[in-house]
Amino acid sequence: MNRDNPEIDKKTKKFIQQTSLDSPGEDFTSNVMKRVEKEKVYGINKRDSNVWQIIMAIALPITYFVFQYLTNKGEATITQMIKDLETTTYFSFIETFSETLINDISFSPFIYMSILAIATLVIFDRFVVKLLHNYSHKG
Amino acid sequence: MSSHPDEHYIERVLNGDQSSFAFLVERHKNMAFTIANRMLRNREEAEEITQDAFLKAYRSLKNFKQKSKFSTWLYKIVYNLSVSQLRKKKPNVYSIDEDENQRFELPEATYKMDELEHKDQKKYLEKAIEQLSEEEQTIILLFYHEELSSEEIAKIVNLSVSNVKVKLFRVRKKLYEHLNLLLKSETKNML
Predict the structure, then answer these.
(1) Are B110 and A17 an interchain contact pair (Cβ–Cβ within 8 Å)?
(2) Are B59 and A39 in contact (CB under 8 A)?
(3) How confident is the model at residue B95, as a pLDDT?
(4) What is the C-alpha to C-alpha distance for residues B138 and B36, in angstroms, rounded to an integer?
(5) Residue of B nearest to A135 (CA)
(6) Taking CB atoms and an 8 Å limit, are B169 and A5 in contact across chains?
(7) Record: contact B16-A134, CB cut-off 8 A
């Protein structure tokens, strides 16, 4: 704007800045964010929910057997179950397993401890790892 | 609203904090929407285009090299999307004017404007701005309201810097011509 009178520039700027900007609707930001949330998250790869469910499905019975073994009282149950597996159908094995699991949950403190441990791992995985990731990128 | 610079929120988004993008939306939504609204002259369409622009910016954030300001980059997306939308309605609406070398003295309208009350000044200005073309409104808004340089505006509106300077000169002249006419007709009405 060198060729122009700087006085006009000043005046025009003053006049234009008096006019207000247009505003979109009140829910504009939330609408944009709803669309953004459907997009990929940068930085951390979002774990596939099916993979997570499979891991949990494997981890739960293993945890159950480990705690049964640690309490010693479960040793007979495991042995018995393996024997049953050889002689009975898979369906009846699952039925026996479920019954034993439900009965044990009702009184074994180790079951509650295992649930707590799993919950802690989930929290660690979902939040703490994310925080550490952010921290390491800033550092 | 937080006073962190845009780069802070961009980094957070790129590190996995998706919600930080809301700060960028809040900060730039009015100017982005104003550009789209002045271009399209339709609130619903402008809101849709502005939303699309933010979404496009989010998707491409990883490729944003921060050589320019985030706002410049975002306004360019808004402008391009608005132009595409406009072209669907009015093809060949944008032609690049040739340079011209003429001086422009302090127009009569500026003196008349000074005599008016603030609310009247605003009323006449808004009327005069409305009479400018979509592109002209965007250029004048970015230069005087957002205080972007000719170089930054050139990036947004896909013109050369010299073209932007010429357009700024012409737009301003046109604005005062419109203002002059508006003020003259108003004076006649008063008499």
Answers:
(1) no
(2) yes
(3) 44
(4) 9
(5) B15
(6) no
(7) yes
Q: Tell whether the model's pLDDT for residue B160 goes beyond 70.
A: yes
CB contact under 8 A, B106 and A41: no
Average pLDDT score, chain B = 82
b/e A94-104 (16+ beta carbons within 10 angstroms → b) = eebbeebbeeb
> Mutate which of B10, B25, B71, B106 to test chain A, going by most A C-beta atoms within 10 A?
B25
Choosing among B19, B27, B51, B104, which should be mutated to test the A contact, i.e. which has the most A CBs within 10 A?
A: B51
Count of CB atoms situated within 10 Å of the CB of B122:
15
- Whether residue B109 contacts residue B180, with contact meaning beta carbons closer than 8 Å, is answered with yes
- pTM, full prediction: 0.61
Nearest to B53 by CA among B72, B81, B26: B81
Alpha helices in A1-139 (DSSP H): 6-18, 28-37, 49-70, 75-87, 90-105, 109-123, 129-138
